[in-house]
Amino acid sequence: MTVDSGDELTWLRDENARLISLLDTHGIAWRQPQPLAPPVAAAALTTAEKVTLFRHRFHGRTDVHPVRWESKAGKTGYSPACANEWLAGVCEKPRIKCADCGHRQLMPLTDQTIYDHLAGRHTVGVYPLLSDDSCHFLAVDFDDADWRADDVTFITEEDQQEPWKRTTPAKQRLPGPMPASLTVTLDNLLYFDKASLPQALANRLIRLAAFQNPEFYKAQAMRLSVWDEPRVIGCAENFPNHIALPRGCLDAVSELLRENGIRCELRDERFSGEPLEARFAGTLRPDQEAAVAAMLRHDTGILCAPTAFGKTVTAAALIARRGVNTLVLVHRTELLKQ
C-alpha cells in the first residue's frame, strides 16, 4: 500500500502541532535560543584552511603527537601515537610497555591527523615544548569570583609597548580609577585592606612580593625534572579581609603608590621591644664601623659581606647600640655556638 505524499505531510504537520501543544502546556522549553551575534559563515574557510588555522593556533611538536585512550575500567590518558600499536605479531602490549618496545614507531602530526581530530574520529593532544625548549603556549589561571577583573588587568598598556622603542623607563601607572589615599598597616607584615584595593592595584602589589626561583632555572639548565619546583616564588599572603606583603617591600610599595598618585598613610603597629642593657666591649675596624653606621639609619636591611668580614661582631655592635631585645636566627649549629 502506498501513502500519498500530501496526506503524509498533513499528518506530520498535525502531529508536530500536537507535540508542540503538549510541550507548551507542561512548560517545557523547546525553541532554540536566538544567537547573540550572527554566526560566522562556515563556508568562509575551506577545509584545508581550517586545518591550517587549527595547527597555527595549537602549535607544538610535529614529529610526534599524543592520542587519547580509555581503558575498559574507564581510566583515560594520553600516550604517543605509534604506527605499530596493537599490530598482530609486532605489538606485544601489555606484556611489554611502549617505552621498552623495540618496534615502537612514533607517528608525526599531519594534516590528516588534525582533520580526523576535528571530525571526531579520535582525540589528539599536543606536546607544547619544542626541541629548542621554546613554547607557543601561555597558561594563566584566574581564580575566585573576581576573575573577570583579573583578566582585564592582566595585560596592560605597558605590556603591549615595544620595549626597544621606549625612550624613558616604563612607569607603573595602573588602569582604572585609583583611590586618593591608601592606609598601609606596618606590623610583622605590610597589611592592605582588600575593600580599599582596586583589582589592578591588588594584582600589582602581589607581584611586588614575587621573584624568580633560582632553583627552578638551575634544575632546568641541568635537564632535571622541575615538575615540583615553582618557577616563581610568591611571598604575599591572602587573608580574609587583607593582603599582606613582607616588610621589605615597603619601599617598592611607596614608589608604586607615588607613581599612581595615591597618598600612602602608614600606620605603625609594630612592637617596639623591651629595653636591653648591653655594652659592646670590642673594637670595630673602620669598614665594620661604616657598616654599623649605615645599618642604623634604616629599620630593615641586609648586611652582605664576604667571609671573615666579622658579621657576627658587627651584629653584636648593632644590638648594643639599638639597646632593645633581639631575636637571633641561624641555620647551622656552628653559628649557634658562636
Residue share in helix: 25-40%
CATH topology of the largest domain: Translation Initiation Factor Eif1
Secondary-structure element pattern, one letter each: HHEEHHHEEHEHEEEHEHHH
* Overall pLDDT confidence: 85
**Strands, count:** 9
Number of helices: 11
CATH architecture of the largest domain: 2-Layer Sandwich
Supply the helix-strand structural class: alpha+beta
Largest sheet: 5 strands, mixed
Strand arrangement across the biggest beta sheet: 7-8-4-3-9
Structure explained in plain terms:
The protein is of the alpha+beta class and 338 residues long. It has 3 domains: 45-118, no CATH class; 147-160 and 172-268, Translation Initiation Factor Eif1 (2-Layer Sandwich); 286-337, no CATH class. It has helices at 5-25, 47-57, 111-118, 147-154, 157-160, 199-208, 214-221, 250-259, 286-296, 311-322, 333-337; strands at 66-70, 76-80, 181-186, 190-193, 210-212, 232-234, 237-238, 242-245, 263-268. Strands 7-8-4-3-9 form a 5-stranded mixed β-sheet, with helices on one face. A two-stranded antiparallel ribbon has the order 1-2. It has a two-stranded antiparallel sheet with strand order 5-6. Helix 2 packs across helix 3 (111-118). The longest helix is centred in the N-terminal third of the chain and has 21 residues, at 5-25. It starts with a helix and ends with a helix.
